[in-house]
Amino acid sequence: MKNWRTWAGVLISLLCIFWLVRGTNPRVLYDTLRRTEYQWLIPVVLLYAGGMWVRAVRWQLLLRSSGSVDLGRLFRWSNIGYLINNLAPLRLGDVLRGYLCSEGAGINLVSVLFTLVVERLADVVALVLILVALLPRVDLPTRYLAPVLWIALAAAAAVAVMILVAVRPRWSLDWFDRLARRFPALDRPWLRRAVHSAVKGLAVLGSGNSVAGVLGWSLVAWLAAGLQYYWTARSVGLALPAPAALLLVCLTSLGMVVPASPGSLGVIESITVLTLALFGVGREVALGYALVLRAVSYVTLFGLGLVSLWSEGIDLQHLRQALARPTKQQGDTERE
Question: Residue 300 is part of which domain span?
Fold first, then answer.
């Protein structure tokens, strides 16, 4: 199943790249890249690093029910995870940073992984809220709204279930017990431990202040991303209005739910070209802008990731072992 998803993602990325290349004038694209004023990218790099720090603060808040975790280490683990997400398929970087946190902070792996699920859902909710606020300012075609609506409904349903579990943990565990009695295949020690750990990982959502804090930090992170997009547009000579930059952040980020190669290569660029066309931006200028965004993202992620690997004392061999251990642990647990 994982191999199928990987190859489907690669195929989608290749199709997007083919579509981009086929209709692009290389000379105009080259001129766009040549005119880039790289001094405008300095604040973009700083904003990117700041956004990663904000995400680490949010993660610390989500882990509060499991204990106190050093913010600096969470920042470094996040950097390592995002680096691997851009190199490996199936978001293995998220599994890796969950494992590093579990090992480094002594927290159950399932509890940590459920905080990452909450992170993703909080991101979707924040993006949808920003998009709703932008609707009076931008003329968005209906074909863009339908998939966003479905994603929003799915995220809202998942968040509601998680908050219910957090508010009524005992009821949730009793419900699983009844389900296990009805279906004996579910009545296994490893699965019971996993369910208890999952409920513990969601405990932070039982507090209204914590929910507001998680959502608030998510909004700060995405507004910082909007500033990154805005300043990058300045670097390529594109007078992109602030609402357009935020709209682009929302659509490209929500578009990452589409299966693709690591880093959503080709998919993000295609969404960027299509979205900027709504504002009268030519294909080559839009693609040049997307490529500069990609380059800045990669340079910053690789820089932060490599420094974090060095700070944590993780070399290539340790990295491979760490990537293999969560899968091995899961297999060992399921055999119990």
Answer: 2-16+37-334
